Structure formats: C-alpha cells, structure tokens
Amino acid sequence: MTEKTIITQALHYLSPDLVSEISASAIIKEIPKDNEILREGQYVKVIPIVLEGLIKVFTRHKDKELLLYYIRPKESCIMSFSASLKNEPSKVFAITEEDTTALLLPVDKVSDWINQFPDINTLFFQQYNLRYSELLDTIHHVLFDKMDQRLLDYLKEKVRVTNNNPLKLSHRQIADELGTAREVISRTMKKLETENLVKQLANGIEIL
C-alpha cells in the first residue's frame, strides 16, 4: 500500500485537493515505544496524526506528572495544534505508549491549509470537542474521586486503549501517570486486589 493510499484512507473525510497537498508535504514515521516525541517548552514543528499505535500526553508541575489523554488511531494532538498556531512553546509533553506510526504535518503548511482548505478544521474541531470532554473527566477524577476509583478507572481505560489485559505496568509508572506517590498506588492496589477487582501478577496487573 502506497503512502498516498494510507493517507487517503486515514483522511477520507477531507477534500481530495487537501489530501493531495498533505500527501506531498507530510511524512509517515515509525516511532518506537517509550519515545518522547514532544517536550514541554519545545516549539512545535510538526503535528502528528496517529495511523497506528498510541501516544499519551502529559502535563508536569514541579516533580509531579499527570496523564491528560491518549491519542488513538485517526486522532491528533490538539495541544500541539494550538501551540503551533500561536507559535508558543508546548505546555505538554508526549510519549509513545506503544510502537506507533504517525503522519506528521509540517506546521508551516498547516497554517496555509487552514486558509486554503476550510475543511481541515473538521479534523481539529473534532479533536477540540474530544479533548475538552476528556480533560473535564480528568479534572473530575482528580477533584472528586477517591484514589481507589481513580486507579480502577485508569486501569480500565488503559485496557480499553491498548487492548491488553493483563497490563504490563509498574506501580511507579502508574504513580507518575496519576500524579501521586508510588506508595499510594501500592496501598490502593492492595485494596483493589482484596476487593477482587484486580489481580497483581509477577509482571503486570490483570483487571478482573
């Protein structure tokens, strides 16, 4: 399958002329798992659209991190899009959750396409609506849910987006993504296991 065919299938809702422009200017890149593709404070040069795989987007404050959302196939990073249009440094950082194939749109071209091809806004308006909802959910969990519910919801979401159960996760990694301490996760995980909601294995965690 040619790159143009892959791009056409992924962006079938855009006009043929715009898809042709994207095919001529964008590149498809294979990115290994656990690869940082965007750093906080970095100026955005390309906007990714995930074709295969999964990317997670974080925010960081002092020594704490918090998982904001995942970028799944056929989705993009609205925070990168926003920062690029304003020519501002990124307020988030992004890491591949698994081996990922991404279509990388050059920022200078995207600015031109917005003026020439209004239908490109279809992609980014969809992403704004999706991320707004997800960020509200994240805020709700942080402010109102107890840690056991936050942890269980986090694990269920991880199973859903990765299609893996058991999950190969350490307590340290979970703590980093939920913005808490490893000891808190270990204590809460034991509580969930006692309630027969999860099972801790030698190399991972199974959701029951």
Could you characterize the architecture of this molecule?
The protein has 2 domains: 3-142, Jelly Rolls (Sandwich), CATH 2.60.120.10; 145-207, Winged helix-like DNA-binding domain superfamily/Winged helix DNA-binding domain (Arc Repressor Mutant, subunit A, Orthogonal Bundle). The chain is 48% helix and 26% strand. The protein contains 8 helices and 7 strands; from the N terminus they run H-H-E-E-E-E-H-E-H-H-H-H-H-E-E. The model has no long low-confidence stretch (mean pLDDT 83). It comes from Maribacter litopenaei. Keywords: DNA-binding, Transcription, Transcription regulation. Residues 145-208 form the HTH crp-type domain. This is Crp/Fnr family transcriptional regulator.
Short description:
With 208 residues, the protein is of the alpha+beta class. It has eight helices and seven strands.
Number of strands: 7
The structural class is alpha+beta
**CATH topology descriptor of the largest domain:** Jelly Rolls
The proportion of residues forming helix, as a percent range, comes to 40-55%
Shape: elongated
How widely separated are the two ends?
39 Å
Tell me the Rg in angstroms: 19 Å
CATH architecture of the largest domain: Sandwich
Task: Quickly count the domains.
Answer: 2
Q: Class of the largest domain in CATH?
A: Mainly Beta
Which spans of ≥5 residues are poorly predicted at pLDDT below 50?
Answer: none
How much of the sequence is in beta strands? 25-35%
Average pLDDT across residues? 83
Q: Major β-sheet, in short? A: 5 strands, antiparallel
SSE ordering: HHEEEEHEHHHHHEE
The CATH superfamily of the largest domain is Jelly Rolls
Organism: Maribacter litopenaei
Keywords: DNA-binding, Transcription, Transcription regulation
Domain HTH crp-type: 145-208
Protein name: Crp/Fnr family transcriptional regulator
